[in-house]
Amino acid sequence: xxxxxxxxxxxxxxxxxxxxxxxxxxxxxxxxxGLFESNPKAEATxxxxxxxxxxxxxLAMEEGFKAIASRKGISIAPxxxxxxxxxxxxxxxxxxxxVFLLLVNNPDFCHQAKKKILDxxxxxxxxxxxxxxxxxxxxxxxxxxxxxxxxx
Length: 152
Fold this sequence. Notes:
single chain, mainly alpha, 2 domains
């Protein structure tokens, strides 16, 4: 009898903990804004960004990164992921700025990408380039550029 009571107690505890874990998982997804959710389209775009970053030609990387940054419907994770390869792999700073400006002016530009760009802004050498990005973000935040909805 004691074995059955103990088994029943273990099952009840396991069921309760399982429900808590599921709720915690939902809360994490809400907190991260879907940044880590499994999304085949986002995963494919991230793989594309990684492939573009491995190209030997700076011009080819420029074209690839610009195409991705301006893509309509680009989700959060690829936007965030794009920042590091652009900073780390493109040679010309002006091209890096052009890619970031395309991303900032993309209607799907998100808070997480904005933060990532601002976090890496110190990697640019030119103050005027930093200011250009900050100005574009500021215009984007207040919704001035091309009737783009504000991101703030």
